[in-house]
Amino acid sequence: MKFYNKLATVSVTSAIVMGSVLGNAQSTFASSGGNSSDQPADVSYMGNTKNPKNVIFLVGDGMGPSYNSAYRYFADNPETKEMDKTAFDNYLLGTQRTNPDDPKENVTDSAAGATAFSSGHKTFNGAIGVDANKQKVKTVLEQAKENGKSTGLVSTAEITDATPAAYAAHVDDRDKKDEIAQQFYNDKINGKHKVDVLLGGGAEYFGDKNGNLTDKFKKDGYDVVDNKTDLQNSTSKQVLGLFADNDMPLQIDAPEKNPKLVEMEDSAIKRLESNDKGFFLMVEGASIDKSGHPNDVTGVMSEMSGFEKSFDYAMNYAKSHPDTLVVATADHSTGGMTIAKGKDYVWNPKAIHQMKHSGSYMTKEIAEGKDPEKVINDGYGFEVSNSQISKIKDEAEALKKYDEEDKEYEAQFQKLQDAIQKPINDKSHTGWTTNGHTGEDVNTYGFGPGSDRFKGNIDNTDNANNIFDFFKHDVKQ
């Protein structure tokens, strides 16, 4: 991370210049890491307001504290003795509690967690924008739109997935994705669509099987795009970008035509910032969680890298726009990842850096009938033993016994993925305890006007409660 250290002492003037050129999202991701602990003071004298006009809320889905620590090891420059900071480290405000209001489960899922973020209400797992009594609750995005602000949702998952859905839809079951997509189009505030910029996956829910919603959005003035080039060339202030039928591919596996998370964020902000009343934008690194569930450490680190770039972009934007608040947190942790396992006090991120593809990618390729040995040799950056390849072949053969609709298929699919990932988990000394979520408090990061309200140990509902209060006291333009 030499790059981070070189920019650690960046001046306010330099930060403004960097913010002004962030249009080229691929070349200007200057980090706020290093030892620049005086950065907030640098910006405060420039006219930071007490009440933010713009709010960028970033969610690292599944990003528990062990993920942040592991990523620091992963991103560290091994040529220096000291461990370098990541872009997150200078902006740690505290932690937050994540428990849901669920009669059966006291560890949250993303739906209940996002509803807490978006509305200030605890609810049951699976609920989207409704409280524990299944009553619709107002979200901060809806309040922003009522205030005349522009709004956006960006995710590497389906845009109808739990976290983005909880800001602009109201259903009692997160799996009602057709209905969620319909609500994105049909529900309006002051005669206008709730969300001006929708970017992510989930094209399946906007096509001819669900009322040709893409055509309807297009008729209402939205640009509808499905690749990075068209997104960057779009000039409309409203855009629906759907870059995969379902979840977008992990960053390590993605084709060039797909925009990265930070490129979607950049595109969204450029559209939203033209509104003199301000904007609300939620940006989700969804596939941190989606890599944590199958215990895919390669995918986790890939997605953490992408999320750090988005976080860094937002922080630099806030430095050059002192009326902007940035908050970043997680809805929960996933997988019970441990930095080291077994008796050796060692975690080896170098092995993860050698990987060419994620375990999830290789599993899908083999499940679709590709030759296991070729897939493993193409995906791994180090030699995998013949005995382990034989184990992978055995699990692949066992998977062929089931159709995807069979209840046994999912369990066998995970056995195949476990076998595929065992070499990298062993070589990196990465441990896991579950394929589900875990209930520890998660970190909160922030910068900008109002960020002090997020300090200490807060409840996840405080995110929304604070933002509602900011919007209640919006400065009239």
Automatic annotation (TrEMBL):
For this protein, the record's SUPFAM superfamilies field holds: Alkaline phosphatase-like
Membership in a protein family: Belongs to the alkaline phosphatase family.
Which top-level group of life is the source organism from?
Answer: Bacteria
Q: Name one Pfam family in it.
A: Alk_phosphatase
Q: Which InterPro entries match?
A: Alkaline_phosphatase (IPR001952), Alkaline_phosphatase_AS (IPR018299), Alkaline_phosphatase_core_sf (IPR017850)
Q: What is this protein called?
A: Alkaline phosphatase
Name the SMART domains on file: alkPPc
Q: What organism is listed for this UniProt entry?
A: Staphylococcus gallinarum
- Keywords in alphabetical order: Coiled coil, Hydrolase, Magnesium, Metal-binding, Phosphoprotein, Signal, Zinc
Per the database entry, which stretches of residues form a coiled coil?
392-419
Signal peptide stretch: 1-30
**Which coenzyme or cofactor does it need?**
Mg(2+); Zn(2+)
